Amino acid sequence: MSATPTTSTPSAGQHRLRHVLGQWLFHLYGFAGYAFFYLPILILVIFSFNDSRSVSKWAGFTLRWYEAMLQDRQIMLALWNSVFVAVVSTAIATVLGTLAAMALERYRRFPGRLIADITLYLPIIIPDIAMAIMLLAFFNLSGIGLHIWKVHFFGVRLAVPISVIIGHVAFNISFVAVVVQARLAQMDRTLEEAAQDLYASPWRTFWRVTLPLMMPGVLGGALLAFTLSLDDFVITFFTSGAGFNTLPVRVFGMIRKGVTPKINAVSSLMLGFSLLLVTLALLAARGREERKVGFF
Asked: What is residue 296's predicted lDDT score, i.e. its pLDDT?
């Protein structure tokens, strides 16, 4: 008579060992992922304080590259151009994107709904180079051209790049609409119905109930649009006229002559500004979530 084979079950100690080992591997995988994404940024910030022109050899701590950046008139002008375009395009895109999100979320059935959805998502899907070429062709064929308007504002002469602002608005509307639409989908419609039952007009219901509830989405979409506009290079490069540079375009021109720690200083400044915006947006969103929504 042959003996039947027996299978040994893992003991409690083996289960505990596998659990601890799995946790360590999970934490190691997460640490490796964060290091892969953020270690190059940390190296860039550290070498912006390098006392050598070489970006691969540390020669001591210095602030002279930040001083050189602040004294470079072309860099400061490009920074002003970037902020100006980002502010104007973000304001326009936030209003139009919020209205588009409300139309698509609140009115689900209307003629051309599918076409509107496809058109709204196109700037997110298509590559930047394709959209830049399309905008360039549109400006040339429509007669708008790559013009820069010179206007005087409180005694200051400003350069207003119409083609760049239109190009940034064109792709920022989609990002704002997607974020706001996601916020509207999570809102409780009964609060608006309660306000209307209490004889609030549609306009007062919107200002006192709907807008405060969806404000975190509006702020998130505006922050995303501002960051994308400030960081954009491809569309700006194709739609900007002669004599107008934003900071990414200026940095690209500097890199063609060689990478120096001054470029690292410029990048670190943009990084710090972006982190400041994110922090302010999170604090504002948290404060609005903690407040009670007033109906009148």
From this structure: 41
